[in-house]
Design goal:
By secondary structure, the protein is mainly alpha-helical. It has one domain (10-115). The protein contains seven helices and no strands. Helix 2 runs parallel beside helix 7 (106-115) and helix 5 (76-91) packs across helix 6. The relative contact order is 0.14.
Length: 126
């Protein structure tokens, strides 16, 4: 009785749904990034480790590791992230428009990049 009253009088069901949806989204991005890193010759497990996964991303696109510090600076981090997504697209031989897709709809475009026939060409910033 108490259980059903709790679910009827609160928004816990909606919160649970949102939490599960976010968890699924995070898992999808991890799997997609794992495939992207593997294609680029990097360890796929790096996509699981926070901060290190961004460092590996910088190595894939040919940017120096100290750019990781730029991501800690407000406003600068937005510009750096845009450059990183554009460079990731270029590293796989894709256009700047694809990079914008990576920026705005990252789960969809990362899945496509990881599971399509897109091949790693070279670091874009090299």
């Amino acid at each position: 009785m108490l259980y059903s009253t709790y679910w009827q009088n609160s928004d816990a069901g909606g919160s649970l749904l949102v939490t599960l949806l976010m968890l699924v989204l995070v898992l999808v991005e991890i799997v997609a990034l794992w495939k992207v890193y593997t294609k680029a010759g990097q360890p796929g497990w790096a996509s699981i480790i926070p901060i290190y996964n961004v460092y590996v991303w910088l190595k894939v696109i040919g940017r120096p590791g100290w750019w990781l510090l730029l991501l800690l600076v407000p406003v600068v981090n937005i510009i750096v992230y845009i450059i990183m997504t554009l460079d990731l697209a270029k590293s796989f031989g894709r256009s700047a428009l694809y990079g914008i897709g990576l920026l705005l709809l990252s789960p969809i475009f990362l899945i496509h990049l990881g599971f399509s026939d897109a091949a790693y060409v070279r670091p874009a910033a090299a």
